[in-house]
Amino acid sequence: MPATVMDKDSMREAYQDVRDDSSDTIWATFGYQENNLVHLSSGSEFEEFREQFNDDGRIFGFLRVTAGDELSKRSKFILITWVGENVSPLKRAKAGTDKALVKQVIQSIAKEIMTSDLADIDLDFIMDEVKKAGGANYGTGVRN
């Protein structure tokens, strides 16, 4: 397989948009067009994000969520590496090595998830994973 070429500029722009708390954009996906790793899409609704993943795809998803207790809310960022069930072993392996390229653009993540199970692309599951990754979970027990 030829070497992967990455469109760093468009990927970095999408990454920065998700990281910007003043932006409505909460997710971006990155994937392949032939041997090029490119920004595929972005959006502001989690369900739209979930729809990007399918059994034939190799997708890197970047997601912003808000986590913390009632006294301290912060944006947290998740990198999801998705390799669908129908992806060939060679392309599956290539996605694994190409993740290093993606991480040249996507940095400062709270949690990384590698999956091919759509059940893992669930907001409750992701929030639980972020909470576990965050360590201590303090709170007063009073909700806003």
Strand order of the largest sheet: 1-3-2-4-5-6
| Percentage of residues in helical conformation | 25-40%
Share of residues in strands? 25-35%
Secondary-structure element string: EHEEHEEHEH
User: What distance separates the N and C termini?
Assistant: 53 Å
Structure description:
- By secondary structure, the chain is of the alpha/beta class.
- It has 4 helices and 6 strands.
- It has a 6-stranded mixed β-sheet, with helices on both faces.
- A hairpin with a 2-residue loop joins strand 2 and strand 3.
- The longest helix is centred in the C-terminal third of the chain and has 17 residues, at 89-105.
- It is globular and about 50 Å long.
- The mean pLDDT is 90.
